[in-house]
Amino acid sequence: MRHVETRLTDSVLLILTSLAGQPRHGYALIKDIETLSGARMSTGTLFGAIRRLLEDRWIEPHEQDDTSRDKQAYRLTAEGRRQLESEIKRLEQLTRAAAHRLRSNPA
Amino acid sequence: MIYRILLKLYPADFRARFQGEMLSAHEEAGGGFSELAGLIAGAAVEWIAKWTYSPAVRARWMADWRFMRPAGVDREEFWGGAPGDLIDAQRRVDFCVSRMMDAIANHKFEQARFYSNEDLKAREILRRVREKYACRTFCGRDGRQEN
User: Across the interface, do B46 and A48 touch by the CB < 8 Å criterion?
Assistant: First the structure.
């Protein structure tokens, strides 16, 4: 499990954001990420990231009665939520700094 | 069809875990060239991760530097004071478990059964060595404890 605070990759950030709303399986994640970012994530990128997130225990399988094994849903763990909150704080600081510089140095 | 073929580029353990889900997601979501390119890139990333992360694969092709004892440091000191035969017995158990998991991941069940039997023998030897030193736990270099 990774303990070091590192910048999340775009794919990891999008997956964690999508799962913050509710548990989702592969196809639902692809559609939700497309809605969130406007770009389509390939299944290769998605499931590679899911494999790493499962190993790091940032997400976990979510059992649902009405889904088959080929539609395994995933949900955020407490650690995953903490990592997402930490990344959101970092992005907020970055956004504030960028806005401040733009205001103080108008073109 | 092309998607199924490209899926075979992935490591066997990854396919065993995710192939069904990937096929299901691909059938629903579809996708063109970028989907296939993403699949090939994903396979390359998975192999790199496997070579650099999985102890079972790394042990097969690369020297594990964690087990390289520096010159001038004796065996007992390097392994934290544990007796040599206790270390050997523990490493034999670790080796059998690692090979057994690798065989299962690659669907080599005959080989997995062989290493399962070897694991039982190795654990019996470990039990006897532990009795010899009257120790109930073994603490490896990585801090792991087994009861």
Answer: yes
